[in-house]
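Hi there. Long-time user, first ticket. I'm pasting a complex I've been working with (about 632 residues overall). I'd like to know whether the download I got is complete or cut off, because the file seemed smaller than I expected. Thanks.
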Amino acid sequence: MHSTRLLKPLSLCIAYALLLLAAAVTLVPFVWLVFASLRAPEVYFEFQFVPRIRSVQLVEANPRPDLAELWQTLQPARGLRLEEAREKLGAENVDRGLTEGMASLKSGAVDWTYLTGDYFKILLTQPEFSFVRNILNSVFYASVTAVFATLFAAMGGYALAKFDFRLRGAFTRLVLLALILPGALLLAPGYQLLFRLGLLDTYAGLILPGLAPAFGVFLFRQTMLNSVPMELMEAARMDGCGEIRLFFAVILPLVRPMIGAFLLIMFLGAWNNFIGPQIVLQTPSKFPLSVAIAQLKGVYSTDYGLLMAGTLISIAPIMALFLLLQKEFISGLTSGAVKG
Amino acid sequence: MSLSRTHPRWVPYFFIAPFALVFGIFMFYPLVDSLFMSTYQSFGPQHRTFVGFENFVHVFRDADFRTALKNTSVYTLASVTVQLPLALGLALLLNRPGIKGKALFRLIFFSPSLVGLVFVAILFGLLLGSRDGLVNEALRAVIPGFPSEFFWLQRYVMGSLILASLWMYTGFNMVYFLAALQSVNQDTLEAASIDGANAVQRFTHVVLPEIKPVAGFVVLLSILGSLQLFELPWILFDGAGPEKRGLTLVMYLYQNGFEQNDLGYASAIGWVLAILLMFIAVLHRKLTREED
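Hi, the file is complete. Here it is re-exported in full:
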């Protein structure tokens, strides 16, 4: 009895320790991404998180450094030599500034001015990048896909769940088959089809094929089988409610949580889709963020700060959306698995 | 199950129409077309020659295809044997009575799976960077004499991939396990506990049988997803990687279809992949049915 009493809190402590470790491992890449994309370009390689410049460590190691060398390491970007600065600002001022600066640096000071938004400014304003355009493209592509895919899936699921018609069995089997077919199988024939239809390099060609989510029809069918009572539909019809109004005013509100979850899933899928836009689109000004950032990596593979900032811009909206709507999201994802 | 009887005839057709139309044109037609396409060798969408079953014969003689199959299999095996046990372990920890902040932990663990594969690939490319990637900086701080340059992405191709996907998907799978664990009957657990069953016995005799259906679903989902790996290595290694050690099946399909422009051969590879997936799905169904 005595031993289990002691053991319980101990094992709880171990559980907490493991969970916190896992949480830290999960979060560190995000935190690192944020800090790295905020580093000032001229000191990008100087620190990982907190802006403690390596030159500071140099000062710490060598309490009486050569002033000229110190000047060099402290002012990497401004390109002014010590003599020039002395001439311009007065030798006494510069030397005193350096000595005082050194003293404050020695005390382990952290210079927060080395965290800037420079990389974001470059990506969003310089003409060789069209990142604002890419963001708008992603928003457009993901929103339109999410809204129409969800609408079509809800309509299709409704038809399969609540009506008896000739092609019902065939459609249900087709939907189940489509669930396990790999998307990659449709890449080559889909490309050829879009070529024949003249839809390559258009948003119609990118969006249309994504509007028939078999997975969604299946989910809505399952949900509506259980949560839409027939009596309600009959009662509405008795009251003179038309079939289309019945769907939008009575049925859809009943499956509201499912709609929220599926909108999010579809938005996320389109936002993160790479292979689709990579194959369909050719004009850079049409690229969504996923393709734009892959291109950025190809061209600016060594400009890590730009890549970091671009990645942060690409994932921040998704994270914000998820934080706002996380309950719906997770329940939507797991509803199929646990109930089905 | 009740079905509507008092509706006009057009109603179900009207509601299934948008889905049916898009599905017919952009899924079903290409699916059938890909069967024909797989019997041609093509150059782009306009030029092609009929080759019969040559593409399928070639697939099995193709050394690169075998490399891709091997890499993809290793990755899939790692997903199932490393990632899923870790996910279950996390779920068990989180489901312990007395743990506070469950919702926050769940939120944190789940968040990486929201990041698109392209962005994860870029992030891990930088994290594993040879000189000032965070991993090397950390190792340098801990291990004296750790080299100033260490090429993870060149030396540990599969390891890097598995690590990145571990970060991305462990929490995602954990959410499923956690949902299943939360629906385990607490009374049965308590009864077992009173009968003197220890934690391990309770897990194998009460918890495991109850979460088996969800576990089976997660294993299947994980296998099917892993076999379709593409973006992660494609971006992380700028292609197939050193000695094609990062070449996957879908990447090989993409390279043939959209770099060599042989849409016919790409279709054939697509069908081999589809048959592999269907075989696994059927096998999975058989196995889970038998146990019931």
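A couple of notes from our side: Chain A has 17 helices and no strands. The first helix of chain A runs from residue 2 to 38.
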